[in-house]
C-alpha cells in the first residue's frame, strides 16, 4: 500500500483480503504492503515498502498530532550515524529497520518519546552508544524505553532457555513500569517478521515459533489485535507454508467480498429504517491462522467454521448495541449457542463487543459484531489507545489495572527461581482462549482453557485454595481436578484451617498463580520437610549421574555451587528443590561443571598408580591386566559384547570403563598424551556366562502386526528384551529400536539372522 494512501474503512484486521477505497485514519496496515503489491495480496506474501526519513516525516505531519520533531530528528540523526555503513541481511541500509519500527509505533498513535525510542532501539545493543549517552542526549524517559527493549546479549547464560527467559523477564519488568516498552518491542518483532525471508531457514522457524508462543499472545493480552493477527499469520507462513497456502487458496476461491458488501448494505438500510443513525459498518475475513487453528488443529472442515466472514456494526451508545442485536436476529436466523456477550463480561485484554452468528439468505453463515465507538478504539489499538485517543498518560489508573497481570506474573516468579518456569507460565497465562465460571454468589472468575477447580479456588483466594478438600459444580460433586467450562457455578468445599495443599497439585493446576501459591505454602509451612526432601532428591540424582559424593561432604560441595544457582547456602537450595521453586534439571548442569572442575584439579596433583601388567581374576566376565576385582562398567558409546576386541580405560573414581578397540572415542583418547597412560589391556574371560545388553535397530515396511512378529521371533530363540521403541518414518517404513540380552557376538549374529527372516524386514543393524 503506498505511503499516504489510507487503508479501507472496512479493513480492520492485519489482513488485506478485502480492498475498499474508503478513507480512514492510518493503522499498522499502512506499512504492510508496498505500492506495487498485487490486488488481494496478503501481507505475508510480499515485502513491505522501505520507509525513509522523508516518508516518516510526512506520516508524522499527516497524523495531525503535535509531535516533538526536534527530539525525533535528533534521535534519527544519532541512529543514522551509529548504524552508518551497516546493512541488513536483505541488503538495505540498517537504518531502514528503525525507521520502519518508528512508523509502526506512529501508526499505533504513540507519543514522541516512543517514536524516538523506536529509532534508537538497537543502538545500545549493536553500536558503541551507551545508555548514559542516550540519557544525556534525550533524558531518562527515552533511555529507559530503549533499555527495556535491549536484549541481554552481553551476559553469558548456560542455555538458550535461560537466555530467552532472562530477556523476557527484563522486558516484562520494564513493561510493568511502562507499557510502551512492549509496544515498541512488538513493532520491532512485526517488522522483523515482515522481512524474515532474509534469515536462514532454521532461524526463520525459531523466530516464528518464539513469535507464536510469546509475542503474539502478549499482543493479544494488550488488546492490539491487528499486530497479534499479523504476527500469527507471518509465523504460520514460515512454520507451515503448505497449510498457509491451502487456506489462502480456499479464501481466494470464495467470493467473500461481494457477499459481505451485500450483507453490509442490507444491515445499514435496516438500521436507518429503524431510526439508528450514524452507524459505521466494517467487514472482515478471518485471519489465515485463525482458520488454520480450526481446520488443521481442530480437524474442522472449511464449511464448519462459522466466523470466516464477519460484519462489524459500530454505534454511539450501549442501548443502540442491544437494539441492533434484536434487529439482526429479526433479519437473519441466529445459530444456537453462538451468541457471546463480551460487553457484560469483557475478555482479560479489555475487549468488549456483542458477537452473534447468523445464517445469511444465501445460506452462508457469518458473524456480526456490535460495539460502541469507544469499544472499537480499544479493540483496534488496545493499551495503545491511551496514547492515540488521550494525551500522554491520562487515565493511567485504568491502564495500571489492565497491566496487573504483568505484575502478578513477575510476583509469581519471585517465589520460583527456575528460569524455565517463566516461559511456561507466560505461555499458559496468555492463551487467547478463556473460560468464565461463577461462584455461588455470582462473582465471575476467568481462567485459561484447561484450568481445574483447584485453579478456580486459588483464583478466589490463597486461603480458599489451601483449605480446599472438594468442590461442587452446578450442585454436583466432582473431582478437584475437574476441568472448568464456561458458565459453570463452582462451590469450593473447605477443610480445617490447618489443611494444606498436596504436592501433587503442582502437576494438576494450569495457572501460574495457583502454582505460585502452592509453592509459597510449602515454602513457609514445611521448611524442614522441604530441606530434607530436596537434599534426598538431589543426592539421588547425583548418584544417578555417576557423581559419588560422601554424605558428610555433600553440604560443602553444594554450598560451593550455590552462588551459581542464585541461592545463599545449601539449605536454601534444598528447600527450593523441596517446594518446587527450582527444578533438578536446572541444577544438574552447573553441579556437573563444578564436579568436573574439582576432579580435574585433583588429577593434576595425583599421579596414576603404576600397574603391574599381570593376569588377574576376571570381573563381570572381563580380565583387566594389573587390576584384581576392580569395578567394571561397559561404555555406552560402543556397547562392547563378548567376542569384540576390547580395551580398558582407568577412570577417576569409577573403576575401569571397557570400550571396543574400534571405538572412535577410545582411538581419539589414546592419541592424547595426557590420557594415553590410562589405557590398559583387557579381554573377555574364557567362560563368560553373563548376559550383556546390546542395541538393535530394525527397518521394515510398516504394516499391522509387525511388532507382534518381531517379538514372537525373539521369544522363539529365548532372548530377553529390556527396552523397545517403534516409530513411523517416511516411505511407508517403520523403525523398531530394541535393547536385548546377548551372550557374545556369535549369539548376536544368530539373533540378527533370525530377525532378518521376519516378513517385510528390510535391514537389521547393531546400534
TrEMBL record:
Domain TGS: 433-494
Highest taxon of source: Bacteria
InterPro entries to which the protein is assigned, alphabetical: ACT-like_dom_sf, ACT_dom, Beta-grasp_dom_sf, HD/PDEase_dom, HD_domain, NT_sf, RelA/Spo_fam, RelA/SpoT_AH_RIS
Chain's role: In eubacteria ppGpp (guanosine 3'-diphosphate 5'-diphosphate) is a mediator of the stringent response that coordinates a variety of cellular activities in response to changes in nutritional abundance.
Catalytic activity: GTP + ATP = guanosine 3'-diphosphate 5'-triphosphate + AMP
Enzyme class, spelled out: transferase
Residues in HD domain copies: 94-193
UniProt pathway: Purine metabolism; ppGpp biosynthesis; ppGpp from GTP: step 1/2
EC number(s) from the headed UniProt entry: 2.7.6.5
Ranges where the ACT domain occurs: 695-767
Annotated protein name in UniProt: GTP diphosphokinase
Pfam name, any one: RelA_AH_RIS
